[in-house]
Amino acid sequence: MDVLVNNLGIFCQGVWMTIALTGLSLAMALPLGVLVAVMRVSPAGGARVVASLYVEIVRNTPLAVVFFFSAFVLPQLGLRLSYFAFAIIALVVYYVAFFCEAVRSGINAVPAGQAEAARSIGMQFGECLRSVIIPQAARSSIPPLVNVTISLVKSTAVASAFGVSELLSAMERVVFLEGNAVLTVLIITSFVYLAITIPLGSIAYSVEHKLGLRR
Asked: Model's pTM, two decimal places?
């Protein structure tokens, strides 16, 4: 416990940075993911192709490559930001694709007859999606969305390699200061990640269980 007490400030800074990375990335990636999901089910062929290409390319690209592109290529294109901002850009670009697929899975779970009934009474695609499909898809989308958010929390650790002082970076700093307590530092860091992700996992299980009972 002395390791935790003596380095509490470093751990708190790392936890705060992890939460900030997660919160800001989530706030941008989720609505963009919904937009891309709408494009993927859109009757407009061009929108579907663009969205599908984006999702397939990003999902099959390692996150570290996206970080490298954000941190080293964007500055060469004239974009001058902090590494924290570049980390946010990388996480958003990467997780838009996963949030998109989580939302799309919920949309696909809605019976096709719902959309057909909406069209039969004269609803346009946007109105049908907004009033009929999305409200029903939201319930089925919640568990996978929470799972993607948990993955996002863990992926913030990649930012430590780019100078962002999140939780993994804090652990490395403490290990450097407390070289004889490596195992203790690792355990503390693991418990902090668990303290963030386990409640999210419990939420996903609870929602999934309730939705299962309702069906």
From this structure: 0.84
